[in-house]
Amino acid sequence: MAEASSTVENAAERQFGPEFDDIHILSNAQVAVILQVSARSAVNRDEELNEVYRKTQKYVERFNTMTNPEKENQELVEELDNLQDALASFRKETDDGEELELHSFEVSALMNLVVTDTSVEEAIALIPSLSRLPEAAIDEILDLIKSTMIRIVS
Fold it and tell me: In this structure, what DSSP letter does residue 34 have?
C-alpha cells in the first residue's frame, strides 16, 4: 500500500506535493496550440475526437488570453516558449541577498491569468504566493507578459 504524503499542499505558500517536483507545467495557451495541431492531424487521418478531448479543447480556448488565429502555430509556440523560459529564469535579489525566483506553478498561473491591464495588486490577489516579491519585480514580470501578449495578438 502506498504511503500517504505528509506534505501539506498550499499554492499560496508555494508548497506542493512531490508530484510537482521536476515537472514542466503548460499554460492554457500552450495546451490550446498542442490540441489544435493534434485535432488537425486527427481530421487528416479521418479520426473523430472524443468528448473529453473536445471539452478540454473548448476549455483552454475559452480561457486562453494569448491567441491570434492569423499567426502560424509555430510562431505562437515560439513566443509562448520564450515567455515561459523568461519567466522560469526570472530572478530578483532581495536587500538581504536572498534570490527570489518563480515556481513553475506561478509561471503557468501568470501566463493563464494575466491580461494586458492586470495590475500588481490583481496579480497578487490571483496568485497570493507572489506577495513575497517586491512590487517592482512583479511589475517587471507583468510588463514581460504584456509585451509578449501584444506581440501575439498584433
Answer: H
